[in-house]
Write a structure and sequence with these properties.
Layout (H helix, E strand, L loop, with lengths): L18 H9 L4 E4 L3 H13 L6 E4 L6 H7 L7 E4 L15 H12 L5 H20 L4 H9 L2 E4 L2 E4 L11 E6 L2 E6 L18
Parallel strand pairs: 1-2, 2-3
Antiparallel strand pairs: 3-6, 4-5, 6-7
Helix pairs in contact: 5-6
């Protein structure tokens, strides 16, 4: 896509020390940093990036920033971080089991007093796919249900569920960004304009 990969590093699951990787990132003045991991690693990476004053124009992560605990733990240090996610509360797909995404979000928040994340939405889609497949197969036979799932073309609050020949779901991702302690969808059809480049740690209010 025209980008130059400046550095590619791997780290162990549950890693706590990112000093070596961050030092390399800082030394070569990397503009964009993509971190693939889970909440624990994302927290440690962000905290140490601030400590070492590593200031790329953009930090994007997979899992972690979309969860409330991440933002609560880091406070203002979570600001401006980008997240690649499979779903957000700002989507509005037609539903099955629920009328649409926004109905699900409203009911979920009323019951649990916090916003759902992609785990919750995916769980609803899982139930919807099984219900649809069992009804179309008119059977609980595992092979018949499996074949019905493979041929699914179902609109859910998680998005359109359809599978390729190798069994992978045909899905799309969204880009989110933390701003003002909240998560906003910034691509596609973002509810807010993304902040880029992001301010360095010392320049933040």
């Amino acid at each position: 896509m025209g980008f130059k990969v400046a550095l590619y590093e791997k780290y162990a699951e549950h890693a706590t020390d990112f000093a070596s990787i961050l030092t390399k990132i800082k030394a070569i003045n990397t503009e964009i940093v993509l971190v693939s991991g889970h909440t624990e690693e994302s927290l440690n990476f962000t905290q140490q990036a601030k400590e070492l004053n590593v200031c790329p124009k953009m930090i994007s992560m997979t899992v972690g920033p979309s969860e409330a605990d991440f933002r609560k733990s880091l406070g203002k240090d979570a600001e401006y971080i980008y997240i690649v996610a499979s779903w957000s509360t700002q989507m509005n797909f037609k539903g099955y089991l629920y009328e649409n995404t926004q109905e699900f979000v409203t009911l979920f928040k009323a019951k649990f007093n916090y916003d759902p994340d992609y785990h919750n939405a995916s769980g609803i889609a899982d139930v919807a796919v099984f219900k649809d497949a069992i009804e179309r197969a008119n059977s609980l036979d595992p092979q018949k249900v499996r074949d019905a799932i493979a041929s699914a073309k179902l609109d859910t609050i998680y998005g359109r569920v359809e599978f390729s020949e190798d069994g992978q779901i045909k899905g799309t991702s969204v880009v989110l960004q933390i701003m003002g302690g909240e998560i906003y969808q910034v691509f596609p059809n973002g509810s807010k304009q993304p902040t880029y480049p992001v301010p360095c740690w010392k320049d933040r209010m």
